[in-house]
Amino acid sequence: MNEGCTLQGGCRLMTSGMRMTLLMLASDIFALVCAIGAAVVVRYLFDGQFHISFYLRCAPVVVFFLAAYAMRGLYPGVLMAPHEELKGLTLGTTLIFFFLITTTFFFKASEEFSRLVMLGGWLGSVILVPFCRIAVRRRFSRRPWWGIPAVIWGAGADADTLAGRFSKDRRQGISVLGTVQPDDAGDDRLQPLREYAAMRPQPMLVCTPESRDLFFSDEVLRIEELFERTLVMPPKAFDALNVQVRDVGGVLFFQMQTKLLDPVRQRLKRTLDLTVIMLALPVLLPVMAVLAAAVRLEGGGPVFYSQPRIGRWGRHFRIIKFRTMVCNADTVLQQHLAQHPELAEEWAENQKLRCDPRITAIGGFLRRTSLDELPQLLNVLRGEMSLVGPRPIVDAEVPRYGEAFELYKRTLPGISGLWQISGRNDTTYEERVMLDTYYSRNWSVWMDLHVLSRTLWVVIKRSGAY
């Protein structure tokens, strides 16, 4: 059982949640000290008119940052979507820096502080604090004590899927103690739950759709006494929906909204796309020039390759990429499938081959790093795509989207997206469709920023790409 460990010199238990909280606190303190300290040192080296000791005496203000994070529920940060954590950290950091600047102004001490230190400290903290949290989760999530204990009440595919997801990605911070099937509970169906609840610390209870009647029965008060928190998995009809509870005259309603269909949010997303591209172009243009020369030098042929894809409103556009295949790619593919008929099923399933004979040497590198998609920035500037969005599909894929295709047609496809940062070609097609649908219905600026930051890591790691 992942309930904790004995502290030296006593019999108290340090629970998993406590250890995770302490790690996150240590990570945040380290990131803040490094970010603000680096800003101070850099400014001092460039003719800073202050004593570094002055900023050392201000070190206790780090406590204000930790308090702001705690108020947003970021310790230990379990049961929080990554983009929501990014939002909480960014807003908390910004709030405290604004508070510090305002305080120094009112107390007429602003001349003692460097504005560049404040700006550099804020920017460094916004970047480094989330990065260090990611590093902590990658470093410790495989430890046996990592994760808030949880019990799954349910049976069938939903229970197996939940247990598999929590076990596969321990960074979510949930450790499954066991699964209880409703049919096995007998007359007193709460008895198996009582046995788990008797453990210390109290675990969470996660109910699947097959068992949600337990939560909505007259036994709900006894359940609340047994478990620290209870989560109910929604039925399939609510999957990927942005659902909020509204009280209208004492009557509770579910309010559902697909955020990317809101014209205001669409304009905000477009503004974010153009801003990021303008900031990144000075770095990306030289890289694209070098890659274009490399593609051209390897066997001649065109540098770019375009292919029709389905865009917003179902209109077709030509997606632009660096050419990664030989010029007679279709002929080579047919010959290869004829020689290796066992690969026909793999091609029919994903329209991809893990060992594709058509890909050139430089093309293999471009695909593994996803750098072949850089020319799609032109598609974004044209308004045909977005930096983040559903994966652009071809006509042959429309039947596999089913009813989700109607939502797909009303949003711009993206260069990157939740699919790309969730395993890319290692995910099933059904998971791709679900991720695209979830993104469209739950979009936010913070989700885009999260996806873009994770995309950089996926490109470096080169996982799931071929």
TrEMBL record:
Q: Where in the cell is it found?
A: Cell membrane; Membrane
InterPro entries from the UniProt entry: Bact_transf, EPS_sugar_tfrase, Undecaprenyl-P_galact_Ptfrase
Q: Where are the transmembrane segments?
A: 22-46, 52-74, 86-107, 113-136, 274-295
Q: How does it sit in the membrane?
A: Multi-pass membrane protein
UniProt-listed Enzyme Commission number(s): 2.7.8.6
| UniProt keyword annotations, A-Z | Cell membrane, Membrane, Transferase, Transmembrane, Transmembrane helix
The biological processes this protein is annotated with in GO are: polysaccharide biosynthetic process
Q: Give the Bacterial sugar transferase domain ranges.
A: 269-461
GO molecular function, a single term: undecaprenyl-phosphate galactose phosphotransferase activity
Give the family per the record. Answer: Belongs to the bacterial sugar transferase family.
User: This chain belongs to which protein, by name?
Assistant: Exopolysaccharide biosynthesis polyprenyl glycosylphosphotransferase
Task: Please spell out the taxonomic lineage of the organism that makes this protein.
Answer: Bacteria, Pseudomonadati, Thermodesulfobacteriota, Desulfovibrionia, Desulfovibrionales
